[in-house]
Amino acid sequence: MEARLQRRIQRYGWDRAAADYEAFWSRQIAPAQEKLLEMAALGEGERVLDVACGTGLVSLAAAGAVGEAGGVLGTDISEAMVTEARQRAAMRGLAQARFERVEAEAELGTGGAFDAALCSLGLMYVPEPETALRGMKRAVKPGGRVVGAVWGRRERCGWAGIFEVVDARVRSEVCPMFFQLGTGEALRMTMERAGLREVRVERIETRLEYANADEAIGAAFLGGPVAMAYSRFDDETRREAHAEYLATLEPYREGEGYRVPGSLWWRGLRCKCVQAVAIPSPGLVF
Ligand SMILES: C[S@@+](CC[C@H](N)C(=O)[O-])C[C@H]1O[C@@H](n2cnc3c(N)ncnc32)[C@H](O)[C@@H]1O
Asked: Is any ligand 1 atom within 6 A of the Cβ of residue 190?
């Protein structure tokens, strides 16, 4: 798909999802975000770039970690996401966090102004993730950290059926490359191609838990990137799409609720996130 079209789909899709995003996703993705922050090992007074920051879940946690002496710049392609993030920062009195609508691949021209650059569950949506990582590398100073988290392989993500259900009802695929970085090696190789060194990749397991079908439907159709396509469906198409998606989740139904996976690593079905941190050697000039 043409990169420009993909960016438009993401931008306006996430604009639609922004108001519902945290209600449906903050609990589910907390383990991935905590791991990312742990790998970033942020310290008091540091400056942090958070690419594809969404509503600022990671940016605001980072702002807490770096304190008033530090600073966080969150960037996102979606204006509505940036607005949500600004509001949340203001409500929590985190003046050290600021937010701008900027695409992940855009040249920030910051010339090593940051100690760490983060991207939590955003690289899968970017047409050229290598370019985005290159920009993150340029944004951090020598010895800084670049940390990204992406979803794992398609066959290990039980909710992956959402894309087929929606794509069958629209003209262009919503997230054509969602799972392209889904293996540890793909993420590692992309990071290394972007010039990052000492790349460390870790996998974590998590499970998406929905109390009932409405929650599962809301998370998939309202709180994510298919929200724009879905907003154009008529009632009949929505009903069909809901039923088809729930059928894909049927193996993970437990009573009224769902526990959606994931890999079969060991007992139970789980979702898998791949996290990577690349730490340039101290003094290494990019
Ligand atoms: C799943 S959300 C993750 C948000 C946040 N990082 C978090 O962990 O909660 C994905 C975000 O990626 C953003 N995004 C998608 N494509 C993008 C692009 N090309 N450049 C910048 N942001 C993008 C979306 O607008 C959305 O806010």
From this structure: no
